[in-house]
Amino acid sequence: MNSSLSAIDPLKPHLQTDCSQCFGLCCVALPYAKSADFPCDKPGGSPCIHLQKDYRCGIHDSLRKKGYKGCTVYDCFGAGERISKQTFNGLSWREDNQTAAQMLAVFPVMQQLHEIISFLREILVTERTTAVHKDAALALSTLEALTGQSPEALLVLDLSAVRASVNETLLEASRLVRERGLKASGRSAGTLPSRREFMGANLKGKLWRGANLRGAMLIAANLQNADLRDCDLIGADLRDADLRGADLRGSLFLSQMQVNSAKGDSRTKLPSGLQAPAHWA
Description:
The chain is mainly α. It has helices at 3-6, 26-29, 69-73, 79-87, 97-124, 133-147, 151-155, 159-185, 256-261.
């Protein structure tokens, strides 16, 4: 197995995307529509007009300037690399029509598996979740085995069942981290939000350490200087959320794609393994 995908670096618990090792799968498999994120329509399965023969993007350095904001946000959790180098053993979608159809169909399946794997890896490098390390390690081993299956097996995989099988472990890890954060803050659970809808809300300076923000709608919310340490942010929609000066250290299940979709600056504090995107001020 490719060590870049399986090794767990305590400083980088999240799976890292390496586009140089991929056949530009996201640029082919995924559809997009003309919007604030893209300047035109593209159907799924059709190569982007800017995808070059070497599978690199011809406008990578000016994506946002040319209207391809969505491309600078997306992250496949390393799924493209695994499919390109392992699942199809280096055979590109350009080389065979049948391979192309399978490869592009497998891509979103692998992306979801890698997302779950990233959550489990995060649990395993977090001392606060030691109580569920055994369960997380067993689940991780199972999922890693699933990613090594044939394209045919991956395409009939029940992803809902896979998610259900790890959900209890994720929830318990979340509880452990949030309770510890709440205790450290010296605040009661009653000071934390119970709702999940905050689109465009002014949440500047909120002291939400240890909050459960799973699936929260935080699109364009003002979270400047907010204390979001030890929060559960799995599935939270942070598109255009203002995280300038916000503290997200120790937060759980925050992905690079969520970070990429938000606004931030040099004062934004991120969890270990995540990076401030180039478009942040």
